[in-house]
UniProtKB/TrEMBL annotation, chain A:
Pfam families: Complex1_30kDa. Residues 49-170 form the NADH:ubiquinone oxidoreductase 30kDa subunit domain. The gene is ndhJ_1. Signal peptide: none annotated. This is NAD(P)H-quinone oxidoreductase subunit J, chloroplastic. Belongs to the complex I 30 kDa subunit family. InterPro entries: NADH_quin_OxRdtase_su_C/D-like, NADH_UbQ_OxRdtase_30kDa_su. It comes from Herpetosiphon gulosus.
TrEMBL record, chain B:
SUPFAM superfamilies: HydB/Nqo4-like (SSF56762). It comes from Herpetosiphon gulosus. Residues 120-370 form the NADH-quinone oxidoreductase subunit D domain. The lineage of its organism: Bacteria, Bacillati, Chloroflexota, Chloroflexia, Herpetosiphonales. It is a peripheral membrane protein. NDH-1 shuttles electrons from NADH, via FMN and iron-sulfur (Fe-S) centers, to quinones in the respiratory chain. The immediate electron acceptor for the enzyme in this species is believed to be ubiquinone. Couples the redox reaction to proton translocation (for every two electrons transferred, four hydrogen ions are translocated across the cytoplasmic membrane), and thus conserves the redox energy in a proton gradient. Its main location: membrane. The gene is nqo4_1. The keyword Oxidoreductase does not apply. It catalyses: a quinone + NADH + 5 H(+)(in) = a quinol + NAD(+) + 4 H(+)(out). It is found in: Cell membrane. Belongs to the complex I 49 kDa subunit family. NDH-1 is composed of 14 different subunits. Subunits NuoB, C, D, E, F, and G constitute the peripheral sector of the complex. Gene3D superfamilies: Cytochrome-c3 Hydrogenase, chain B. Its EC number is 7.1.1.-. This is NADH-quinone oxidoreductase subunit D.
Amino acid sequence: MALLARGELRSILQTELPNALDTRWDTQATDQPEAHGEGQTVLLDFDAVVKAEAIVEVAHFIRDKFGYDLLSNITAVDYLKQGLIELVYQFYNAADGGPDLRVRVRIGRSPEECIVPSLTPTWPGADLQEREAYDMYGVVFPGHPNLARIYMWDEFKGFPMRKDFPKTGDKYTHVTGE
Amino acid sequence: MLKTEELQINIGPQHPSTHGVFRMLVTVDGETLVDLKPVFGYLHRNHEQLGEVNTYLQNMPFTDRLDYFNSMVNNHAYARAVETLAGVEVPERAQYIRVIMDELSRILNHATAMGFMLGDMGAWQTALLWGMREREKILDMFEYVSGARMMCNYCRFGGVVRDIDDWFITELKKLMQGLPHYFDDFEGLLLNSEILLARARNIGVLPKELALAYSVTGPVLRGSGVAYDIRKAEPYAVYDRFKFKVPVGTVGDVYDRFLVRIAEMRESYKILEQAIEQLPDATGGFINPKVKQQSLKAPAGEAYARVESPKGELGFYLVSDGSGSAYRYKVRAPSFINLSSLADMCKGYTIADVVVILGSIDIVMGEVDR
């Protein structure tokens, strides 16, 4: 059991679980956010970006091998320009403390691509957070026992936190036009 | 043979024991609870999207409305996230002031939370009144420094909005003289109460492994015997300069959470004593004068900062696109994630216990629904 430094997980995964890493992000040099101008979102690459189907395997790997047993946070971010939804998983080592370990999954925004296996069967703490990501961003988690809307009502259409969700003029507010 | 069948009932959304607009859809077999589904969203105002529309500074008062008992702690966590993102330094005096406010918040939160929980249990009025009495004194202090009792809006990027003065320190010392007396009274009155023991011992047990799997944090996790406190695990502000213990429970029942909170109030008191002792003089300033508060822009990137709020790990995850407002603003609300363990804790106990178990998690719906 040891604490991992920033970026260390990526090199460990390259040797231990080479199939888990998402190879699309190997060559992107976006580790210097200062190089980008205003209004530019950057995809940060110093953490491990893993394939959606490998997230459960990677989560078990870091828990059993390095003691990162506290899944603190699942955040969905909509990168509209890049056409991606990113899920950031933050794990903590409850015994040793220290900073978080971030694991990222990047998926497309269309309904066919926006799918990530659920962590809820092993980490029941992911339950409500995955439901939130589904409700707000439309990420579907196969394996989740009860993937229903959590904040919005069940009949609600669309995913309000997506960047292209209209902020005015929907049928609920009865206001037309932008 | 009498025919029996399970019954589904709703506790809430409008119910005094749910501490806000919160519904529990419970399935019961007689008095015994078989299943529980938490239903929420009644207070949902898409706080996270407001955070993406507001500028960084405009969003500060909105964080007050998350956990409205501890607006000082919310401010601190949010300010820390923006400071990490924009690379802002905080003067030492401001760090100490923030610690003082955080620990006062912890005392008032635990005092009232335990009061409400005992009120749910039927120990009506006295416990809550005593907690409210102490809270009132602390709120007076908050009002003096920030101008508001609950919606403090006190932190700024790189410091706090107003310095504390000698009058504040004198009054704080006076206030603190009464606190140990309150802790002793509160503990003595309740720990010897047979009713409390009967209602709290071995009720709502959450074992250690399960607590970790459920991602719970704060007094609930520590009540289950995991000594995880962010002030120790990843010290922020100036917490590494204070001596204090992390109280833990053994069984993980309602009673342990109760004990952990009482012990935490005493530890907060110790931190307050040390913070007043070590407080640097005003020469270093209480806010970083270089920071442009209104037009603050953060370089593109991301930041996550967390503090040990009285309810658990409160974190803010920010993604910046280089403009004056956050591209993504996410709140890791402790009450929300602690609630995921509720169903498991309640199964097998009676309906009357559910109310107590919910009280022992200490939730605030402003933070759960966002």
